[in-house]
Amino acid sequence: MNGQTDLLTNIPKESKVFLDSMIFIYTVEKNPIYYNIAYSIIDGMETGKYLGYTSVMSLIETLAKKDLRTNTTKYDYIAAFFANVGNLTVAKIDHEIAYTATGLRRNYNVSVPDAIQMATAVVNKCDLFITNDAVFKTMQPVRTLILDDIM
Amino acid sequence: MSSQGQITIPKNVRDSMGIGGGSEFVVMARTESPQVINIYPKVKKWVDVICGIAEGAWGDDPQASTKYVRSLRNEWANRPLD
Q1: A19: three-class secondary structure by DSSP
Q2: What is the ipTM score, two decimals?
Q3: Within the 12-51 window of chain B, which residues sit less than 8 Å (CB to CB) from chain A?
Q4: Class of domain A3-150
């Protein structure tokens, strides 16, 4: 077991964990590679092993897929999930997150959505940022776990 | 709907879903067109509601959804910092 896997399996109870968009997308699409781990991350959050945080950006990126926009039943169920699943805070983009994202965008030259995701984790004092995007390897004000690094 | 905002779920629906007095629900409103009010029986595990609900939506390539998120974010990154 490598250190990155340890990071995921030994998340201390009541830790604050930021979940990037793809964790939700892998779950709804039942991704053949990442589904099991994505499911276990969300299940762990819902059953109270840790507190989940994400941004409204994740909600947009999950629901923006055309197939979902045209299938209102699936769209509504996923929207209901984001509104009701236990132990998940879907953070709005407020002034503090905007100012923090501005600094991250400037310092790391990342895209605005990347900066907003990380700023949301910073402002909410998250202990861990889970994603599957290597971009975040260069930007780690919050300890970051890339799924591909533990597969 | 009553003047107090109450509605009655038809008996055949209650029976078919096994719901009755004391059952709890989640109500979600879609305010944009087409307007919809959804009433969901209280769910034990939301993750089980959504898992696989959009299977295939991102195509057959297992990396397609990862690339999709990156492409959305790159829409904002086509120019250098001012």
Answers
A1: strand
A2: 0.87
A3: 26, 28, 30, 34, 36, 38, 40, 43, 45-47, 49-51
A4: alpha beta
